[in-house]
Amino acid sequence: MNAEMNGGGGDLRINSVLEYSKKYHHQDDGQGQGQGQGMFSTGEEEKIDYVYKVVVIGDSAVGKSQILSRFTKNEFCFDSKSTIGVEFQTRTVSINSKLIKAQIWDTAGQERYRAVTSAYYRGALGAMLVYDITKRQTFDHVARWVEELRAHADSSIVIMLIGNKSDLGDQRAVPTEDAVEFAENQGLYFSETSALSGDNVDTAFLKLLEEIYGVASRKALDSSNGKVNGGDMLNGLKIDVIGAPELEISEMKKLSACSC
């Protein structure tokens, strides 16, 4: 796959997630959920600069809860059950010397909960839209999820499309090229992950949070300069697409005992 792609509104670069993963390599310190060393907070007494609300959306059984569990607790639960309604977990990270608490909402994918979860889109600064690379139908529904998200969320929300279960490549039903094309057309970030092995999970979340920080910083700067009113100043922002299977290389993480 080429390192750059041309699309409407300018070039969309497919960046090396390996380089990003090296920049923000997670090390578990065993001091609690979502904590670590390096860029991660290790004490609740530290002052939180920002709280970012992120929603994880997509069809049922695509691995949303598993991705969230991997990011916040570095766990994978083999006996995981479908989420009922909405749950959330947190993880504190450091971006540009600022402590940022990610409040990540795990929304149920079942149709009967759609009306309930739509209310939780409000106030979200970022979204992880997850599909299962082994189930074509879950990818076919992505457009509907994007439409629903944009109907309820702020226009400046940062969205990352995630093809989960990359460890099941031999059962792939969704070509990576299809996802890249959709992400390009919709102005989304894109990556493929494996909640089972942990491949690219941290990379995807941290990239999303870094972009949210950038969007919020630009919005604050432009607002202070009197250039904008409300949340429409970033409407139409073109967001790069990231991720490619041949670039998605990260250390296999040892599966911890499931406590959920």
UniProtKB/TrEMBL annotation:
Give the protein's recorded name: Ras-related protein RABA3
Q: Which Pfam families match?
A: Ras (PF00071)
List, alphabetically, the PROSITE patterns matched.
RAB (PS51419), RAS (PS51421), RHO (PS51420)
Species annotation: Rhododendron simsii (Sims's rhododendron)
Q: Give the UniProt family note.
A: Belongs to the small GTPase superfamily. Rab family.
Please give one Gene Ontology molecular function term for this protein: GTP binding
- InterPro entries assigned to the protein according to its UniProt record, in alphabetical order: P-loop_NTPase, Rab_GTPases_membrane_traffic, Small_GTP-bd, Small_GTPase
Per the record, the domain of life is: Eukaryota
What NCBIfam families does the record point to?
Answer: small_GTP
